[in-house]
């Protein structure tokens, strides 16, 4: 255990099936493994940290997520390399995932920041960034 490290993140989603298909694929590509599964949710773990996705109750689905509202703006993950970013970018395209900032890709975050930006099924922004080489 590292003091200050993330223990887990729990994210409520509008459609658990769509979200677990999306996040399961992505997290497993990044080295996570399936950790827990129950009727209303699923989690993936890497080391001591894990992500939990839970189906939001119907009564809370009237107001969809938007990253510009108060709350979480986006999640950013390290890729293993620039080549890893490129491979996952192509896989995202094949899967029909909405890519963001395509006109500036792969340097939308600046010339030293090699990354791909995209949206999950609830339109949460996700970033996959290569370590500086």
List descriptors.
single chain; 133 residues; alpha/beta; four-stranded mixed sheet; 2 helices; 20% helix
Can you walk through the features of this model?
It is a single chain. With 133 residues, the protein is an alpha/beta fold. The chain has two helices and eight strands. A four-stranded mixed sheet has the order 1-4-3-2, covered by helices on one side. It is globular.
Biggest sheet strand order reads 1-4-3-2
Helix content: 10-25%
Q: How many angstroms separate the termini?
A: 28 Å
Output the helix-strand order. Answer: EHEEEEHEEE
Overall mean pLDDT stands at: 94
Shape: globular
- Tally of helical runs: 2
In total, how many beta strands?
Answer: 8
Low-confidence stretches: none
Major sheet characteristics? 4 strands, mixed
Q: Which percent band covers the strand fraction?
A: 25-35%
- Rg, nearest Å: 15 Å
Class inferred from helices and paired strands = alpha/beta
Short description:
The chain has two helices and eight strands; from the N terminus they run E-H-E-E-E-E-H-E-E-E.
Per-chain topology:
Layout: E1 8-13, H1 16-29, E2 33-38, E3 41-46, E4 49-55, E5 74-78, H2 82-94, E6 99-100, E7 115-119, E8 125-129
Parallel strand pairs: 1-4, 5-8
Antiparallel strand pairs: 2-3, 3-4, 6-7, 7-8
């Amino acid at each position: 255990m590292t003091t200050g490290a993330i223990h887990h993140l729990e994210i409520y989603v509008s459609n658990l099936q769509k979200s677990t298909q999306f996040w399961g694929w992505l997290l497993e590509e990044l080295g996570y493994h399936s950790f827990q599964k129950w009727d209303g949710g699923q989690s993936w773990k890497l080391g001591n940290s894990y992500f939990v996705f839970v189906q939001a109750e119907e009564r809370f689905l009237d107001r969809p997520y938007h990253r510009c509202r108060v709350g979480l703006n986006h999640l950013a993950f390290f890729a293993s390399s620039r080549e890893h970013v490129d491979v996952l970018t192509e896989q995202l395209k094949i899967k029909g995932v909405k890519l963001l900032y395509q006109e500036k890709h792969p340097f939308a975050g600046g010339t030293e920041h090699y990354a791909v930006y995209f949206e999950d099924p609830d339109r949460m922004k996700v970033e996959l960034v290569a370590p500086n080489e």
